[in-house]
Amino acid sequence: MDKRAAAQVLEGRGWLAEQPADLRAEILARGRLRAYADGQAVYRGGDAPDGLYALVTGRMRLATVQEDGREVVILHAGPGHWFGEVSMVDGLPRGQTAVAKGDSLVLHLPGEAFARIVEADPRRWANFAGILSRHLRQATHYLGEVLALPTPQRTARLLALLCRLEEGAGSGPVQLPLSQEDLAGMLGLSRQTANRALGRLEGAGLVRRGYGGIEVRDMAALDRFEG
């Protein structure tokens, strides 16, 4: 995929689609396309910040690393998702690990280019802060409305939330390329407990477990599911 095709993807969805035309053009002009193979890390927790990233094609697994070395998955991101913004704001080492799930193409806005943009026009800080605020709102929603629920409802609401984060997801079935192990990590549950919750949702006809992911058959019903 060339730069023009990548621009069409990023300008049509996610954060960049909401930005002024001149900022979109500058980011795309300064950004560089980088390809990653399945399992290859874009960066790891503890790395020095080196810029912003946007997923063009493929999937990206974002996870935090606990003190015992265990990874907890935060999100499986799809095209249009921007990541790496926190370290660009606070200047601290990466707090997450970003690993490609399948062959993936990423637009990288190097740290030097990011600095030139905001130094030339400090008002651009507010635009870039939109990436952080978008992610913070999603996290706040999850913490405030999902974590307090019983396990089956929590699982249903999280799957519905992940569907809404999928660009282009409509009222039909949505395929989430999410392993049951990663889902358990996102829920803070053991794999066995998460599987039991998935079984209840599958029994209700709301999801279908399969190789390589979970098919959500009725996102609206997941939002209403009461167990």
TrEMBL record:
Pfam families in UniProt: cNMP_binding, HTH_Crp_2
Residue span(s) of domain HTH crp-type: 149-220
Gene3D superfamilies (UniProt xref): Jelly Rolls, Winged helix-like DNA-binding domain superfamily/Winged helix DNA-binding domain
Domain Cyclic nucleotide-binding: 15-118
Keywords tagged on the record: DNA-binding, Transcription, Transcription regulation
Domain of life per record: Bacteria
One Gene Ontology term of the molecular function aspect: DNA binding
One GO cellular component, as annotated: cytosol
Classification via InterPro entries: cNMP-bd_dom (IPR000595), cNMP-bd_dom_sf (IPR018490), Env_Response_Regulators (IPR050397), HTH_CRP (IPR012318), RmlC-like_jellyroll (IPR014710), WH-like_DNA-bd_sf (IPR036388), WH_DNA-bd_sf (IPR036390)
Keyword Transcription regulation: yes
Protein name: Crp/Fnr family transcriptional regulator
